[in-house]
Design brief:
The protein has 81 residues and is of the alpha+beta class. It is built from two helices and four strands, in the order βαββαβ. It has a single domain, classed as Alpha-Beta Plaits (2-Layer Sandwich). It has a four-stranded antiparallel β-sheet with strand order 2-3-1-4, with helices on one face. The protein starts with a strand and ends with a strand.
Length: 81
């Protein structure tokens, strides 16, 4: 199956959602190439960037499930290749 490279950007405004985010990232761990998390204490938010190499439906599923969580926003950018 063809895979795509994407970056899922996650902004967490409600820390209650962090355990569920970590659970989802573990569930999709076989597709994750890298992860960077930055706590931004001044604004009381966390920023997470996920690089993923997966079929498009997997990427959309992960991004959608994370974006449905309380106090969490996501955006996904895909490579052209």
């Amino acid at each position: 199956m063809e895979t795509k490279i994407a970056v899922i950007s996650i902004i967490v405004e409600d820390l209650v959602s962090v355990p569920k985010i970590n659970e989802l990232l573990s569930k999709y761990g076989e597709y994750i190439v890298g992860r960077m998390g930055i706590p931004y204490h001044k604004k009381k938010i966390n920023i997470i960037s996920i690089v993923i190499d997966a079929p498009e439906d997997i990427i959309n599923s992960l991004s959608g499930q994370i974006g449905d969580l309380k106090g969490v926003n996501t955006k996904t950018a895909y490579s052209n290749s």
